[in-house]
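Example record

The entry below shows one chain as it appears in the dataset: sequence first, then structure tokens.
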Amino acid sequence: MSEANHPTLCQTIPIYNYLLDIIEDFIDQKKPSEDVVIAANNAKEKLLRYYPTSDGLVYIISTILDPKNKMEYYTKMGLMIIYIEIYKKQITELWKKNYMPAQITINPPNTSNVLVNHIYKKRKFVQSDELDNYLNSPPANIETNTLLYWKLHEKESLNLAKMARDYLAVPGILIFWVIGLN
């Protein structure tokens, strides 16, 4: 991870899950000795102690803002619906508080042209929500470059791209380094 030229914090939760799965599979399939089981359980307990939870919002947000993951990562991992709803609520609240642009009311044109006035007086101009659009679209291909994705979508999702830059810029390696200290 330390040599990665792509965002790494968004990989933290998937890496934790991968490591936990390996430990659990090892214990279940290999039928190791009691000492090895104790060591594997100690490793699992240490991982769980540092596992990013809902109070580690930066992990959740960065995982969701990786276009290859979105909310589908949590769904496919079999996370309980209540947690998925909490995570969606957390990212939505953060979005609305810090990144969502103020709703702009666009008035229909006021011209001397009676026909134009008639056509546009009944039309509503609704500003779409960047986060909703992003979450409602399918995840990107697994080969997608996360940084390039946000660069290419910056014009249509300017504020969400800013949020992605803020969260995806945090290096995940720091998290694993801190774990190694304990």
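Notes for this example: The mean pLDDT is 82. Residues 62 and 167 are 6 Å apart (CA to CA).
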